[in-house]
Here is the input.
Amino acid sequence: MKRSVFREYADSLIIAVILALFVRTWVFQAFQIPTGSMENNLLIGDHLIVNKLIYAPGAGAAERAVLPARDVRRGDVIVFKYPVDPERDFIKRVIGLPGERLEWRERKIYINDQLLDEPYIHFKDRPGDDPRFHNYGPVTVPAGQYFMMGDNRNNSEDSRWWGFVPHSYLKGKALFIYFSIKEGGSLLNLFSDVQWGRLLNRVR
Here is the structure.
């Protein structure tokens, strides 16, 4: 006996919901940029897709075939649990890797006493009075942890303030911008407020 059309649609809908929940939980995460700490590379109002499998050691062969896993690299832009409040997600760039000696000196980063080339860095805003905006360290990054910094160094409270990020707190690598709207903008003004030129840009 053939199943009813309603039953076929219901089964398809249930499968689609299960797949969507699986993808949302294990593969991808959406993330919205809330502050200017990553400007000019990521702007307030950018909406990102995050690869949650790339740093996951337990990913199976099927998952790795679609989204290969690898080690954390310097320069990766990562969403992670905020060390001070793990219920919140932050996004920053990986600057210091485990075992490295890092120093922020006169607004330049030195890794093991070698100046780091940072083409992504910006000083868009006026820095605050805290000396950590200009100098920090030297510190040695502990095993299994990372030193994170925002690209807009004058407007980013990052590992200079709250320390290192454990590997277990990493949630995924930012892949691309799937939607972007101007700060304070509205979807009612699609043509003026949506930043169409940023859609599908890769996060670098």
